[in-house]
């Protein structure tokens, strides 16, 4: 069952990158939630995790959540598109 976080959904039914950044910033992605990890299963269907120096497409998908992580997997930036 996905995590329901009040206030995380925007008016258009999606969620804003800023809301996701506040939830993910400084955390790692894992199987469940705790002080250090955010559960991957609770991310939107359209997402991708971008590691440093990884190649990725530059196509713009407004509904996609781009999660930028550092070398140890800690979230450093979250943007939509």
Automatic annotation (TrEMBL):
Gene3D superfamilies: Trypsin Inhibitor V, subunit A. It holds the Pfam family Inhibitor_I78. This is Uncharacterized protein. It comes from Ophiobolus disseminans.
């Amino acid at each position: 069952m996905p995590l329901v976080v009040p206030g995380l959904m925007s008016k258009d039914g999606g969620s804003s990158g800023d809301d996701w950044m506040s939830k993910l910033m400084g955390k790692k992605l894992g199987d469940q939630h705790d002080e250090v990890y955010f559960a991957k299963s609770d991310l939107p269907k359209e997402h991708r995790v971008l590691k440093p120096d990884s190649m990725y497409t530059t196509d713009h998908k407004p509904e996609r959540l781009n999660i930028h992580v550092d070398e140890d997997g800690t979230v450093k930036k979250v943007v939509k598109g």
